Amino acid sequence: MISLAHAQAAAAATPGFEQFLPLIIIFVLFWFMLIRPQMKRAKEQKKMLTELAKGDEVVTTSGQVGKVVKFGEQYVSLEIADGVITHVQKQSVQTLLPKGTIKGL
Fold first, then answer.
1. How far from the centroid of its chain's Cα atoms is residue 99's Cα?
2. Is residue 83 in a domain?
3. Which of 4, 35, 42, 56 has its CA 20 to 30 A from that of 69?
């Protein structure tokens, strides 16, 4: 009759650098494609808000276009039309426009 062959016990695999390489590559790609650009954008936004001055033309996150009339630590007063002033949070200012953009609208 045929005798049964028994397999030899497999050696225990030790985790090595090769097993973690795909995870490291995914993390590096995640860093360069998502985290780093977001940090760069946040840094530029913060710089723009600190350099904000009276008379600058801006766009808010809600889409309002206006000229900065007055600003404080938390809020900015925007003139969106002649004599119409709105108050928005400073963080809602999204884009700084070139001078004279509002007149062209």
1. 26
2. yes
3. 42
Q: Two tokens at 46?
A: 């913060």
From 6-20, 28-42, 51-65, the region with the lowest mean pLDDT: 6-20
In the predicted structure, residue 79 carries a pLDDT above the cut 90 = yes
Parent domain of 102: 53-105
**CA–CA gap between residue 61 and residue 41 (Å, rounded):** 15
One-letter amino acid for residue 6 of the chain: H
pTM above 0.85, yes or no: no
Helices (H), the chain: 17-30, 36-50
Question: What does the pLDDT read at residue 35?
Answer: 93
pLDDT at 105: 81
If asked whether residues 71 and 90 sit together in one domain, one would say yes
Query: Amino acid letter at 82?
Result: D
**Under a CB-based contact definition with an 8 Å cutoff, are residues 46 and 34 in contact?**
no
Query: Is residue 17 over pLDDT 80?
Result: no
Contact criterion met (CB below 8 Å) for 76 and 66? no
21 CB contacts (<8 Å, ≥6 apart)? none
